[in-house]
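User: Teach me something about this protein's shape.
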Amino acid sequence: MTTLNVTAELERLIADIAGRTEAFRHIDPERLLVCVSATRGGGVHGTYAKIHPLRFEGGEHRKTIRRRRSTITVEMPAVTHRGREILYVIYFLVPRFFNLSLREKLSTVFHELYHISPEFNGDIRRFPGKNFAHGSSTRKFNAAMAAFADEYVAGLVDRCGIAFLDGDMAAIRSRYGAIVGRKLPAPKISIISK
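Assistant: First, the predicted structure itself:
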């Protein structure tokens, strides 16, 4: 049996999406770090993935925040991988992510990638209004991600590149001798001055 390197397969999938899907061509896969994080339960309720942008609004490293009577300056951490500065870290929560249907897994990947700013500057894509992360309707946001996933699958000549996502966690475990993935503690913002 072979070993499934989850992060390597997801990185390869993300690179393919960025290369073949117009709305995601601004993404440089070499400046994204894909990681896995464990969930307590294997059910499908809860968060499946999360993205950590490594810049503030507008791609800034530092930000001054006013809190009541004081002002603090905070800074995003510097993360490098293979000699390149990383702008985004995406965590896939296992086993929960793998217990989704194939369509939901792909929609989740598109969901996290769509959060990346069109400027690819380390900030997230910002929609107008109070819900700047998903826009006026999270339901419409998720429906758009499902449509991206469906279009992507329809354009595949073969399904070899997404075969590692077939089945739930138990089925995936039965196909591979071992499942490995990159782990990284969530990057923490530092307080520079108070």
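Now, about its shape. The chain is about 25% helix and 25% strand. The first helix runs from residue 6 to 20. If you'd like, I can walk through any region in more detail.
User: That's plenty for now, thanks!
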